[in-house]
What we know:
CATH architecture of the largest domain: 3-Layer(aba) Sandwich
Radius of gyration: 21 Å
Distance between the termini: 51 Å
Strand content: 15-25%
Number of strands: 17
Number of helices: 10
Strand order of the largest sheet: 11-10-9-12-8-13
Structural class: alpha/beta
Number of domains: 2
Largest sheet: 6 strands, parallel
Helix content: 25-40%
Shape: globular
Amino acid sequence: MVRWRSGLVSSVRREWRGAVELEVDTDDGPLKALAYPELTGAPRPGDRVLLNVGALVMGLGTGGYALVVALPDRLPPDPVTDGTTRDAGHLVKARYTPLQPILLGVDEDASPHREAMAADGVDGMPVVTADLHSALPAILAGIHADRPDARVAYVMTDGGALPAWFSRTLAGLRDHLAGTVTTGQAFGGDLEASTVHTGLLAARHVLHADVTIVAQGPGNLGTGSPWGFSGVALGEAVNAVVALGGRPVGSLRVSDADRRPRHRGVSHHSLTAYGKVALVPADLPVPADLGVDLAREVAEALAPLATLHRIVEVATDGLDAALQASPVTLSTMGRGLTEDHAYFVAAAAAGRHAAALLGV
């Protein structure tokens, strides 16, 4: 349940698109807090803030902030109602929570993109699906390594963070993406969509993407049980891609650095999502230079999936340079490129394979 605190903003630490990091003095001492000005207004030093400190108390990695719920003594004004499409939205996200935003959906009647969204498919667009948000910059690096001019959109699902603003990675990639579509309960993208299906249509027909990446926001939910993880929705994303006439490319979660046996080699997340949830074929790229032991382990894990999916070996020459040139820091579970090279090169290989499908 919610753990409440009240405090005073002592300083603004840093800002990125959609978010402000603060230091707040409370009875528990100074706390690092995060505010989303679109929801709460922009905090200033001296403001009293109400905080939800649950994730901070639990010591969560990606969610380890006190979150600003309100500036009770300086509430933001109501949105200006000027008759524009910005005020015409009926899409409620984070529904029936105290901070539910009401937004304009990309395919609503009032949307300027309504006509484009009448399309019933994505014209064979390659779509890379990934379990973790940390794969996003690596996949993008793989795509742009061979097709630097490719327009790449990001469809963010709601398995992790709901506000796209939480992601500093996404803020850093803004100039390298055609745009972001937030789907389901997620919000804060350049476009809002109700489902992954409409998110994919928006990526293709509104953002004019050549390739789209589908992944959850930061903060994967996992219980350590076979089915209890938010990445299970990855398999449903593959189904959505095929239903819309796209070409799914499954980014595999591969690691020889993760200490947890269930995530070593090919993670059970990938094996479950692609092996049990996806009902249609996808291309599953595997880097060619994983090393003898890891390559053998990966091949054995993927063998049962080969009855449905296409296992594709992808050359890795040039991918290290592309990953090292990423405009944002590469990090997954606290490990960088050198600490978990296999993870990032596998994601980049998926991007390279998607790029190779362009024009085919």
